[in-house]
């Protein structure tokens, strides 16, 4: 894959994460706010109280969704960074074991042993760390998801 395609794929993956957070936020916002407003409206006919209750629920829900999204994506990012660090340590300590590990990952992902050996040798000439984390964990090397993007998307979607 060329660098241009790789950049496009990484950018697309990031936008999909923002879209996912937005859809989740909007869906949760519609359901929970409607529930609060209907509940308060059944208890009182005062429009001002119904409005304030709905607005307070919107703010609380938006901050809650944004916070949850931030924590979730931060945890994912931390886990991915730890996997990269783990593979870097393996490369630093035992290059042959790292080669065997990558070859096994290629085989597990459907390559025959001969192809796996060729791919491993080629990867170790270019960027072995990138190949290890992408094949073993499915992580886009150096393209970690930004938790702030997901949190902001979730907040705005819930609020709207």
Explain what you see.
By secondary structure, the protein is mainly α. The chain has one domain (3-159). The chain is 87% helix and 0% strand. The chain has helices spanning 3-43, 47-93, 95-108, 113-126, 128-137, 147-159. Helix 1 (3-43) packs antiparallel against helix 2. It is rod-shaped, with a radius of gyration of 23 Å. Residues 1-8 have low confidence and may be disordered.
How many discrete domains? 1
Helix-strand string: HHHHHH
Q: How would you state the average pLDDT, rounded?
A: 85
Which spans of ≥5 residues are poorly predicted at pLDDT below 50? 1-8
Structural class: mainly alpha
Radius of gyration: 23 Å
What's the helix count?
A: 6
The biggest beta sheet, please?
Answer: none
The shape is rod-shaped
Share of helix, binned: over 70%
Portion of residues in beta strands equals: under 5%
For the structure shown, list the relevant keywords.
160 residues; mainly alpha; 6 helices; manganese ion transmembrane transporter activity; VIT family protein; transmembrane; membrane
Can you summarize this structure?
This protein is mainly alpha-helical and 160 residues long. Helix content is 87%, strand content 0%.
Detail the topology: elements first, then pairings:
Elements (H helix, E strand, L loop, with lengths): L2 H41 L3 H47 L1 H14 L4 H14 L1 H10 L9 H13 L1
């Amino acid at each position: 894959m060329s660098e241009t395609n790789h950049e496009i794929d990484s950018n697309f993956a990031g936008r999909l994460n923002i879209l996912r957070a937005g859809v989740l936020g909007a869906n949760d916002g519609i359901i929970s706010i409607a529930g609060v407003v209907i509940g308060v409206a059944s208890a009182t006919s005062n429009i001002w109280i119904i409005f304030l209750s709905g607005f307070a629920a919107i703010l609380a829900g938006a901050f809650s969704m944004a916070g949850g999204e931030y924590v979730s994506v931060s945890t994912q990012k931390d886990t991915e960074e730890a996997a990269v660090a783990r593979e870097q340590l393996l490369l630093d300590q035992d290059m042959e074991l790292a080669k065997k590990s990558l070859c096994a990952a290629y085989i597990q992902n459907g390559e025959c042993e001969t192809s796996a050996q060729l791919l491993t040798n080629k990867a170790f000439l270019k960027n072995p760390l990138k190949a290890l984390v992408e094949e073993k964990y499915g992580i886009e090397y150096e393209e970690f998801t930004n938790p702030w993007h997901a949190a902001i998307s979730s907040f705005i979607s819930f609020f709207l």
